[in-house]
Structure formats: structure tokens, C-alpha cells
């Protein structure tokens, strides 16, 4: 009790002294205003007395309350700022600091509650003496059940705790107007009391620690390596052309080329340089083992640099021919699904913190099927299309490996299959983490830094869960690069493909039984989770906060709830792989299949907006829909792939087979990884809130798509393709040693 009383008494003492000093500020200004009256000397004397009293009270602040520790430097600078602001002729820097303050705006009913102010103007304000300058901070304020933030400009000598204390004591005032003025009672159920909970200042939030430095180094290395490899490849090519040119001024019929006999007898340039070095070396002769080691090292360096050269990687991107035996419409489906996901993220990520009419956005978009493009379906059906394609390709890849294996599907084949998948996913995946951490650590963020800070801190903490592809189970709500839960699911699905292929080779009946069991298990678990947590169907970002959290942590990111589309893809490829004859006999069968597929897709989209899924009346239809709709969507897309492969795609096959899709499909993986990084980067650099409208979102979407494709192309050429080349080079060397 005594301890509680001491703290309570100290807080009141602190408050009393701070208020007294502030009232003395106002009293002194009143005498300054009267300085032109008939008794200026008397007023000046009183002003000096007030100033002396303030000077005597100032040191007491540091000892008034041990729990309200405000630095003396902060108090002095705040005193000077408020004095210069409330003077008869306010100083220019003080006016700038006050002008950058976040103020009450319009459209409060539409969700415009945050008052950001001007970040740049605050940082540009400097006191003439150079003692301090403005720093931008945000006050988190609570009033009548809702939270909002207010941007405030304070001296840079103050820390978060200092600003919180001073704001709670309501020290920041211009005349009698508080910097933290509450909303009028008209909008807050007659409550005009606001409570400051915490202050967060932008200064020092994004520091470069050891982890960020490593990520920056890795990010830069994969820019330097391609440049080095490109220069090296160009130099080698120039040297080859120079060596092939005629010498001794003798005419030659084979100018600029080499005869076939000479080509057969010629050595590689690396060997020529190595032999030349050995013959002309003046160093002591070393053993053959050392020479072989050096030669091997030079050969590996030569191969590595060439793998990173643009001369090798760019042509693989520009080739627009589809792989033999692969459905040409597959690339179009993949790219359009990616664009659909980018559209959803453009809208969703802007609504997290950047809209000044977020309530209007929720009312217009979340429950209206016209805006299905803005949410990538009822909720990101494009991801289920990715799972379908992944299942189709995984089955095809393993079947091809089994076909070239003399012993069929073995442990060696299975391990090689899984290692190939890891080599495909992880290099670019981990590089995207380094890119986010490195880039976000050095970017000069604006007044909306919270989302980028959230992702940066998460990657510092749990990056290892991405390395082991467990980020869909570990720290889901605070995961690193949260959108990469898809990669964890994808690899976990790949683990089941060998078992399905094994049963396919041994017993078709066993495959049917296992496939049916897996479908039913996934449907049952999803239905139970939906019923227990009452998961929303079309708009998981609605007002049910707990249901929304459960939607992402217990359903959306879990492999046992998302396995259906992948299994559809695996079974579809198993059905198509050994079919030599035409399966669809006539147009009637094809038309019937197209009709069923279109009706299924229409039902998946439309039912999401008509089924009752509120907390108080969660219908059985919502449970059934949640369990089946993603697999049903994947089956409809699977029919499109099958019909196009059979020659009954019509207009859809013509559009989906355009050559441009082949180019974009080759960079689609990099685009998927990088597009949220770019969207968060753009949103975080804003100093003011954006206004949601259809035309604004459309232009924003096109801009994000353009930047995503440019960056995705760069990452594919700089990181993904070089690692593919290194993997092939290592595989060739391994086989060569095995033959020897």
C-alpha cells in the first residue's frame, strides 16, 4: 500500500509541477503581450520574476517522480520550442513544427481518423542556434473504444518515453489549444476525452545491425556477381575471336573461323592459359596434386562466373517457345492468376493503414461480387490455381524421372526429386528475405512505417522458419515474408507425390482409395475448423477480429486445409500422362465439360456473397462451402487445362497460349516473391493517406504490375537462373566423376 501511495503521490506531484510550469509560460506571454501598455517596466519585472520561478522549478522535474523520467535536455528543448511558438512573434522553425502537426480532417465517418501531419516538414525544421531540430513522432490515442494516431513534431532530444509523458500531461499546446485535441462528441457518443497510450518516434527505428548488414552484403553480392560474370564472359569471347584471327599477315581462306581439324585438336582457353602458365612460370615446380587443385579451382571459377553472365541467362528468358509436352495454356493461366493475386494485394495492403476512407472501402468491396478482382476471388482463389499447377507439374516431373530410371521409383529418385524442388525454391526465396531486410533497413521511410517495421522485425526473429519451410506452422501471425506460407505448403505437398506415384505404378485401385481418403480428410478437417471458429467466407478482414486471426492461423495457411487443389493437379496429370489416344470424342462432350466448369466457377464466386456466415447465425452451408469451394475451383481450372490439351479450348486456348505468357511465366516465381515487398515499400513511403476510388486503385494496380515484372525479370536473371546453371554444372560434374 505504501509503495502504491508513493507512486500515486509522485505522479500527482509531477503533474502539478509540469502544469505549473506550463501555466507560467502562459502567464509570461500575457505580460509580454502587455509590454506595449502604459507600464512596461512593471510588466518586464513581472516577466523576469516568472522566468526566474520557472528556472527554479525546472530541476524539480527530474526528481518529482522516478516513474515519469523525462530527460532534462528534452524539457529544456521543449520549453524553448513552446516559448518560441507562443511568443508575440513566433519563430519560423516553431511555426514549421506546429504546421507539420497532424490535424483533424474531414470524412471521419468514412474512416479518416488518423492524423499523420507532414513528415518532411517536421524534419526540415531546425532551431537557428542548431541546438535541436524537429523529429516526427506518432501518438497512439484512444477515445471511446477506437484507436487513432496523431503525428506530432517535437525536439529530437526527446525519446519515446519523454514524449509519452509530456503528451499525457498535455504539455504540448499552442495558446490554449492542445496538440492532442480529441474528436468532437458528435462522432464519439458524447465523449470528448482522449487518452494517449504510447508515443513512437521515427528516429532510430530502422537501424542496421549485424543481420541487416549481412543481408545488405548478400543483396549487393548478387548484383556484383552478374556484372563480373558478364564482363568475364565478354572478355573470354573477345579473346577467342582475337585468337582465331589470322596472324603473320598471311592470307587465309578460313578468316575468322577455325577448321574442323583444328577445332578437334584445340583445347579450352582455361587449359591453354594453365599450360602457358606452367611452361613459363619462374616459380619452383610444385607437385601435380597442387597443380590439379589450382586447375580445378580455376575451372570452377570459370564455370561459376559464366553461370552468372547475362549472355547466358538473358536468352533463356527471351525464348518464348513452350516446353515440349507441356500444355501451352498453362503459362497463361499461371500469369493471369499472378496478376489476380497482385490486384488483391494492391487493395488489401493499402487498406491496412494507407486509406483515409477505409470504412467506405470495406462497405463497398468486401461484400460486393462486382469487386471480385479486388480480392482475388472470395479470397485469393488464384493461390489455389497455383497449387493445382504445382500438383500437375510435380506429378509430371516425378513421372519423367521414374521413366528414365531403370529401377522405377526408388529412394534415390525420390531424394533427387525433393532436392531438385528445394534447389528450385530456396535460393530465390532466401534472397528475397535478404532483399527485404537490407532494403527496408536503409530506406528513409515516411509517416507510415509500421507495416514495413513489422515485417523487418519478423524477419530478424524467425527467418530460420523460412529456411526450413515451416513458416506456415511457426509464428504464423508474425512470420517473415508472410506471403511465403505458400512455399511451405507447396513443399509439404511435394512430399506426398512420391507415395501417390508409387501407388499409381503398383495399384490403380490403391491410388483411388488413397486419393479419396485424402480428399475426405481435408474436407472434414476444414469443415470442423470452420464450424468451431465460425470462419468468415468472403471477407476475412471484417469486424470479427478473433475469427479473422483464426482464419489465417488455423485454416488459410495450413496444408491439411489447402491440399485439395494440389491433389487435383496430381491426379489430373496421372490421368493425362499415359493417354495416347484422344479422350474427348466430340464437341458435345467438350461443351458439357465447359458448361460444368463455368457453372462451378460461378457458384464458387457467387455463393461466397450469399451464404450467411455471421457469428450469431453461422449456417451449415458456410461450413460445406468452406470445405469444398477451393477444390471445386481447382477442378474447374483443371478442366480448362485438359480441354486445351485435347484441342477443345477454342478462344480460351488461343488467348492463354499467347507467346507473351511464356515470357512472363518464366519470371512469375520471382514476381510472386517480390510484389508484396514493392507494395509495402510504396505504401510505407507515403506521407499522406490515399483515398480509395476505383480509378486510383486501377492506376495503382498497373503501376505495381509494371514494377513487379521489371523487378521479377531482374531477380530471375541475377539470382534464379544462375543458381539453375550452378545446379546443372554440379550435376554434370557429379555424373562425370561417377563414370570415372
Automatic annotation (TrEMBL):
Residues 71-192 form the Nose resistant-to-fluoxetine protein N-terminal domain. Keywords: Membrane, Transmembrane, Transmembrane helix. GO terms for molecular function: acyltransferase activity, transferring groups other than amino-acyl groups. InterPro entries: Acyl_transf_3_dom (IPR002656), Nose-resist-to-fluoxetine_N (IPR006621), O2_lipid_transport_reg (IPR052728). Residues 247-260 have a biased composition (Polar residues). The chain crosses the membrane at residues 210-235, 428-448, 483-504, 511-533, 560-578, 590-611, 631-651, 663-685, 697-719. It comes from the Eukaryota. Residues 245-268 are annotated as: Disordered. The keyword Disulfide bond does not apply. PANTHER family: O-ACYLTRANSFERASE, O-ACYLTRANSFERASE LIKE PROTEIN. This is Caspase recruitment domain-containing protein 8-like. The lineage of its organism: Eukaryota, Metazoa, Chordata, Craniata, Vertebrata.
